[in-house]
Amino acid sequence: MKQGLIFILIFMLTACSSFGHGLAELTGLSFLHDRRDSKAIMLDEQIEDSAVMNLHGLDEIKDKSHFNITSYNGKVLVTGEAETEDVREIIIANVRIVSGVKLVHNEMIVGPISSMQSRGEDSLLTIKVKDALAEIQDKPGFDATRVKVITENKVVYLMGLVHEGEGVTAAEKVQNVAGVKKIVTVFEYIDYPSKK
């Protein structure tokens, strides 16, 4: 109980600098900047919801895993921990069959399930990374709301529809964030529109 209150307090104290960015996500304002169309955004939400519901209904993985499912333009990132390789394979196989999934990035590790403290630290690190991305001002056209940030065991995953230069800039910025153990980019790169 005490530990939970401490994390809430830390979150409240550190969230102030992320308030504008977080508010944009909560109110859907980031939707205005998203390179996905509304149909793709809705499909990603359906993929995530369907995958999580399906997985929570499987007794063979219950209490043997911790997973996060993140879909972006039909590409799904699976992070977390599975106690055994068999459990991880069941999770990945069930994500692959969800309607609308184009590709699965399997980043689940086989090992002990993370603690609530570790997950709380990951949440704080995600806030720090988002703040760092919001500071990028010298890259024309760069929009931090177009970069999805997922943190698992201090490994930061970056997703989104970006130009290659934007992806490089984002990864370089995140390298300077204290506490980041590793950066994994799972961007979908897009070309600049051709000039006629």
As for the CATH topology of the largest domain, it is: GMP Synthetase, Chain A, domain 3
- CATH class annotation of the largest domain: Alpha Beta
Describe the main β-sheet briefly: 3 strands, mixed
Radius of gyration: 17 Å
Multimeric state: single chain
Number of helices: 6
Q: What structural category do the secondary elements indicate? A: alpha/beta
The main sheet orders its strands as 1-2-3
How far the N terminus sits from the C terminus, by CA atoms, comes to 62 Å
Structure description:
This protein has a 3-stranded mixed β-sheet. A 3-stranded mixed β-sheet has the order 4-5-7. A two-stranded parallel ribbon has the order 6-8. Strand 2, helix 4 (85-96) and strand 3 (103-110) form a beta-alpha-beta unit. The protein contains 6 helices and 8 strands, in the order H-H-H-E-E-H-E-H-E-E-E-H-E-E. It is globular. It has 2 domains: 1-32 and 114-196, GMP Synthetase, Chain A, domain 3 (2-Layer Sandwich); 36-113, Histidine-containing Protein, Chain: A (2-Layer Sandwich), CATH 3.30.1340. The protein has helices at 2-15, 19-27, 38-56, 85-96, 116-134, 164-175, and strands at residues 65-72, 75-82, 103-110, 148-152, 155-159, 161-162, 182-185, 188-189. With 196 residues, the protein is α/β, with parallel strands linked by helices. Helix 1 packs parallel to helix 5.
